TrEMBL record:
Residues 7-23 have a biased composition (Basic and acidic residues). It comes from the Bacteria. Coiled coil: none annotated. The keyword Nuclease applies. Keywords: Endonuclease, Hydrolase, Nuclease. This is 5-methylcytosine-specific restriction endonuclease McrA. Residues 36-90 form the HNH domain.
């Protein structure tokens, strides 16, 4: 059974986090902070959260099933695509290692 709660406070926090992402995405200087933390691509903030594969969902860095005490901790929140969050489930995040070092670096 899930340890997740679905209270008005939970919904308020989700809405507030979505609105924060939308504000960050609107400014080219902060846009990277509003992207998907798993794949790094831009999230479609024009769609309602959780309605399309590219729409926003609030992801928890530490899964709620394992860390229920962190469900409402904003430091545990991450902006994420609906599809990326669904694919991850409650497992560890599988992020790429980033870009390869340029040849001149070695």
């Amino acid at each position: 059974m899930s340890k997740r709660t679905h209270t008005r406070e939970d919904q308020r926090q989700r809405t507030e986090f979505f609105d924060e992402g939308k504000r960050l995405d609107a400014n080219p200087e902060t846009r990277q902070l509003a992207g998907c933390w798993l794949c790094g691509l831009r999230i479609d903030y024009t769609q309602a959260p959780g309605t399309t594969t590219d729409s926003h969902t609030l992801d928890h860095y530490y899964p709620v099933d394992d860390y229920p005490e962190l469900q409402n901790d904003p430091d545990n929140f991450r902006h994420c695509h609906f599809d990326c969050n669904s694919s991850r489930g409650k497992g560890d995040a599988e992020r790429g290692l980033g870009e390869l070092m340029p040849a001149w670096w070695s």
